[in-house]
Amino acid sequence: MPIGFKRNSNSPVGMGDPGDNELIQELQENVQRMAARIEALENADSSSTTQVVQQARIPKFVAGDNVTITQTAARVNIAALLESGSSLEAFEVVAEYGDYLECLNGTATVYVAKPWMLRRSPFDGLTVNGVSYEYSAVNTRTASNDDDSETQVITPDYFAGEVILVVGRSTGITTDAGLSIEWEDVNTAGRCWATIGVT
Prior knowledge:
Elements: H1 18-43, H2 46-55, E1 67-72, E2 75-80, E3 88-96, E4 100-105, E5 108-113, E6 127-128, E7 131-137, E8 140-144, E9 149-155, E10 163-168, E11 183-185, E12 192-198
Antiparallel strand pairs: 1-2, 3-4, 3-10, 4-5, 6-7, 7-8, 8-9, 9-12, 10-11
């Protein structure tokens, strides 16, 4: 079984665990409600669309705590506010390192931290939650526990010329030359670790 997908009990989801059954039922009910709302939106004329959207409440999101919710006739926008003084920018990737990326902002070289879970330093040579990590490249590692060993890679790959969206913030990391890194990739590409081989 792939590392990171093991459960604390031997019962599969939805069998023998009341919490799982309740969660599945809640998810099914939410899917049914959203399907009904989508159908109503598709069938509604422009005068009634706003009313339908107003009825489509999303209870998990509440305005406040640096979250804003705005609503138009057919769309609900939810946005988290950035740290005070921070901003979003688009940079071009030049090279990839273990914890960060070398990028271009126009013609200026800037350094951008990878998302924390994709960095090398928090994991390389360490054991986290019973899984040991050893890196063989900036985007490749072996994850091992008592039962399995698997090779993992960051996917999709970063590549030269790619444009990424970054946020200005203090990351607490530095380049190999000791320069402080004040930008972080917000991971709009949805990068994560994927298994390419199990032994």
